[in-house]
Write a sequence for this structure.
C-alpha cells in the first residue's frame, strides 16, 4: 500500500522516471514517511492504551535491594520499556544512586533506554522484518548488560560528583493513574502528541538521509566498499555515529536504505546503535553528575561494544 | 490561593509545562502562585525522578511529561 503511494506520487504525479536517481529517492521518501508515521501513531496509541510505559520511579523501586545479576537483568529489560526525556537523566541517575543501586546497573539502564524501546522495536519489525528487529534488540540488551559490567570494573564511584551522594530522595506518593477507558484513551492521545512532537524531526531527517542513500549511492560502490569484507568499515561506522544523533526510530529508514543496497548487516547495526545510544549532547547532560573520566570511559566502552557487535554479525551473517 | 511548583532542570518540556500552568488560571479568572524548581535536591526530595513534575499545594500530582490541558484546568479549579 505504502509502496504504491510512493509510486503514485513519484512516478505519476511528479512524472519522475523510476530509473532516475531523483525518482528513486522521492519514491522512497514518500513511501517511508507514510509508512513510518502511520506505524508510529498506531504503536504509541496502543501502548498508551495498555499503559505499557513504565515510570523510572517504579523501575527504581523494582530494582533496588536485589542481588547484582537480578538488578542488572531488570534494569536492562525495564530500560527498554521506560521512555524518559533526556533532561530526566540527571534526576534519574541521582535517584538510582540514592537507592543504593550499583553504578554499573545504572549505566546498564542508561545504555538500554535510548537504544531499545518498544516503539522502535515494532517499527523495526514493520520496516526491516522480525529477524533484523530481533538481532537489534538482542544485541542491544547484550551491549547494555556487558557495558554496565565493564563500567563497574573501573570503579566509576570515584568520579561521581560529591553532591550526588548527599541528596536524599523523598517518598512522595505518585498520583494514581486514571484506568477507565476514557482515561486510557486520553493518556494514549497525550502520549502520541508528546512522543511524535518530540521525535518527528529525527524521523524526517532519517527518512531524508535514507532516501538520498537509496536514490544516489550506486549499489556497485556499496558492495565493493561496505559489503563487510573490509574490517575497518565497522569502527568507521561507529565513529561516524558518535557526533550524529537521532532517536532510535529516526535511524531505521537509514538502515533500511543501507541494507537494501547491500551494506553488511553488522556494519548497519553498529551505525544504528552508535547513532541512537552514543550522543554527545546526552553525554554532556550527564556531566552534571559524573566527571569527565567517567564520561570518556562511558563513550569508550560503548564504542568498543558496538564495534564488537558489528564485527560479530558481519562474521556470522 | 493555590501554589504550584514545576519541577525540572530547565529543559524544553519543563518550560512548556510552566507556561501551560501559568496560562490556565488567567482563562479561569483565578490567581495562583507558580514557582519553577530547578534544584536537584529539592526535585528528588519530592520523590520525582522523571521531569517535568508538578506539585500542587505540596503534593505531587504529575510527573514525566507535559500535563494535558484538562488536567491543568482541573488542578486550577478543583
Amino acid at each position: 500500500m505504502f509502496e504504491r503511494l510512493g509510486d503514485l506520487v513519484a512516478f505519476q504525479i511528479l512524472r519522475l522516471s523510476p530509473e532516475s536517481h531523483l525518482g528513486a529517492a522521492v519514491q522512497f521518501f514518500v513511501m517511508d514517511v507514510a509508512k513510518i508515521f502511520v506505524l508510529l501513531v498506531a504503536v504509541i496509541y496502543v501502548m498508551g492504551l495498555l499503559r505499557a510505559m513504565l515510570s523510572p520511579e517504579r523501575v527504581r523501586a523494582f530494582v533496588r535491594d536485589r542481588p547484582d545479576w537480578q538488578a542488572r537483568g531488570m534494569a536492562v529489560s525495564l530500560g527498554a520499556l521506560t521512555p524518559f526525556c533526556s533532561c530526566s537523566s540527571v534526576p534519574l541517575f541521582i535517584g538510582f544512586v540514592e537507592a543504593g543501586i550499583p553504578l554499573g546497573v545504572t549505566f546498564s539502564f542508561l545504555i538500554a533506554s535510548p537504544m531499545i524501546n518498544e516503539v522502535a522495536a515494532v517499527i523495526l519489525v514493520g520496516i526491516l522484518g522480525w529477524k533484523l528487529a530481533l538481532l537489534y534488540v538482542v544485541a542491544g540488551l547484550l551491549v547494555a548488560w556487558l557495558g554496565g559490567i565493564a563500567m563497574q570494573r573501573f570503579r566509576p564511584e570515584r568520579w561521581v560528583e560529591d553532591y550526588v551522594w548527599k541528596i536524599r530522595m523523598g517518598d512522595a506518593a505518585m498520583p494514581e493513574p486514571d484506568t477507565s477507558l476514557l482515561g486510557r484513551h486520553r493518556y494514549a492521545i497525550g502520549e502520541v502528541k508528546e512522543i511524535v512532537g518530540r521525535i518527528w524531526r529525527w524521523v524526517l531527517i532519517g527518512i531524508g538521509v535514507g532516501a538520498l542513500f537509496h536514490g544516489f549511492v550506486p549499489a556497485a560502490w556499496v558492495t565493493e566498499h561496505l559489503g563487510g569484507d573490509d574490517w575497518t568499515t565497522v569502527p568507521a561506522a561507529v565513529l561516524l555515529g558518535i557526533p550524529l544523533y537521532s532517536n532510535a526510530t529516526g535511524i531505521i529508514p537509514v538502515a533500511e536504505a543501507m541494507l537494501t543496497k547491500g551494506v553488511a548487516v553488522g556494519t548497519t547495526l553498529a551505525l544504528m546503535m552508535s547513532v541512537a545510544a552514543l550522543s554527545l549532547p546526552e553525554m554532556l547532560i550527564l556531566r552534571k553528575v559524573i566527571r569527565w573520566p567517567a564520561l570518556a570511559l562511558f563513550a569508550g566502552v560503548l564504542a568498543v561494544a558496538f564495534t564488537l557487535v558489528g564485527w560479530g554479525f558481519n562474521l556470522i551473517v | 490561593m493555590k501554589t504550584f511548583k514545576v519541577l525540572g532542570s530547565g529543559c524544553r518540556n519543563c518550560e512548556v509545562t510552566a507556561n501551560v500552568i501559568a496560562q490556565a488560571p488567567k482563562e479561569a479568572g483565578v490567581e495562583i502562585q507558580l514557582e519553577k524548581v530547578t534544584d536537584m535536591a529539592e526535585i528528588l526530595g519530592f520523590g520525582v525522578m522523571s521531569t517535568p513534575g508538578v506539585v500542587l499545594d505540596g503534593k505531587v500530582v504529575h510527573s514525566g511529561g507535559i500535563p494535558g490541558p484538562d488536567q491543568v484546568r482541573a488542578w486550577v479549579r478543583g
